[in-house]
Amino acid sequence: MKKINFLFIITTFFVSFFCNAQDEASIEKEIMELHKPTKIVHDSISNLMKEVNLKIETEKDSIKKISLLCV
Predict the structure, then answer these.
(1) Quick one: which of 46, 65, 49 has its CA closest to 57?
(2) Rg (CA), the chain
(3) What is the pTM of this model?
(4) 26-55: per-residue pLDDT in tens?
(5) Distance between CA 26 and CA 20 in Å, rounded?
(6) b/e per residue, 33-71, with b = 16+ CB within 10 A?
(7) Alpha helix (H) ranges present in the chain?
(8) Average pLDDT over residues 8-26
(9) Would you say the C-alpha torsion 24, 26, 28, 30 has a positive or negative sign?
(10) What is the crossing angle of helices 62-70 and 2-58, to 10°?
(11) HSE on the CB side for 11, CA within 13 Å?
């Protein structure tokens, strides 16, 4: 009887573990799908920030540099 209980507990553990792992994978996939539109916006903003920072770094005129910083 103890062996049957032990096997039942072990089997239940493994089944629940694999079910949870599968659920987590599907949830992660769903989250990635939901983040696709925001990732596009985030990447666009990052590219714009890089361009502005590059302009600021290369600008020699201090007045223009200050105006770029304030935009």
Answers:
(1) 65
(2) 27
(3) 0.44
(4) 888 888 888 888 888 889 999 999 998 888
(5) 10
(6) eeeeeeeeeeeeeeeeeeeeeeeeeeeeeeeeeeeeeee
(7) 2-58, 62-70
(8) 68
(9) negative
(10) 140
(11) 6
